TrEMBL record:
This is Inner membrane protein YgaZ. Belongs to the AzlC family. Keywords: Cell membrane, Membrane, Transmembrane, Transmembrane helix, Transport. The chain crosses the membrane at residues 20-40, 46-65, 72-96, 136-160, 167-185.
Length: 241
């Protein structure tokens, strides 16, 4: 029975993750094309995607490299864009922190936006899931996503500039993040963080080397944390009455 429930959780994750193939594939294809246009060879492009496996950070680093930005700025900007992964990890730890080390290591590597978004919603919606079921669901989600990220990065790197511009592959970037962020704006803290970060990103778009994104990310986190504190204080005060 336990094995059956774990398999069921895994295949549910596969089904829930499968729709993201529609946006992850062109996203990866676009990266493969842009990377080779920037001068990377196929091996370097694939190593970039396999080692980093973070689309937004990869595009950020690539753009800065094209602008001949200092190496420190490239690394700092990519790290800033990926700081959300630290928050993802902290958020997932109460649910899967008790898993064996090897499972946590693989989960850390495969913690991409889609895996986090779907998994945290599943864990919060079904708090009675066992640890093996949670891990199975997580790995089920990444099964259709990550292999396709590698595959379509390779295709993009191989075909390069032969893809017509009319295909407008860059549509995949905003659609991917809209699809993930929309369902997660469930609390005032989430909404405040999103609104502040978007506003600051627009206000500081003029800052060189995309450093405005770092400002926006930090401001959004501060706003979300502050709203959450206010909400908790208000709830405590109401309970005390």
């Amino acid at each position: 029975m336990a094995s059956s429930s774990v398999k069921s959780a895994y295949w549910k994750g596969v089904r829930n993750g499968a729709p993201f193939i529609l946006v992850v594939s062109p996203f990866a294809l676009l990266f493969g094309v842009v990377a080779t246009e920037a001068g990377l060879n196929v091996f370097e492009t694939m190593a970039f995607s396999i080692v980093v496996i973070a689309g937004a950070a990869q595009f950020t680093a690539l753009q800065l490299m094209n602008e001949n930005a200092p190496t420190l700025v490239v690394l700092a900007s990519a790290l800033a864009v990926n700081l959300r992964m630290a928050m993802y990890s902290a958020s997932l730890t109460p649910y899967i922190g008790g898993a064996p080390m090897w499972q946590r290591a693989w989960a850390a590597y495969f913690t991409v936006d889609q895996a986090y978004a779907l998994s945290i919603i599943e864990y919060e919606t079904h708090p009675k899931l066992t640890l093996p079921e949670r891990m199975a669901y997580f790995f089920g989600v990444v099964t259709p996503i990550c292999p396709n990220w590698y595959l379509f990065t390779l295709i993009g790197a191989l075909v390069g500039q032969s893809i017509p511009q009319e295909m407008a592959l860059d549509f995949a970037v905003p659609i991917t993040f809209l699809a993930m962020i929309g369902p997660m704006l469930r609390t005032g803290a989430h909404v405040a963080a999103a609104m502040v970060s978007v506003t600051l990103a627009l206000l500081f778009a003029w800052v060189p080397y995309n450093l405005g994104l770092m400002i926006a990310g930090i401001g959004g986190m501060m706003a979300g944390a502050q709203v959450e504190l206010w909400t908790e204080r208000k709830a405590t005060q109401e309970d005390a009455k």
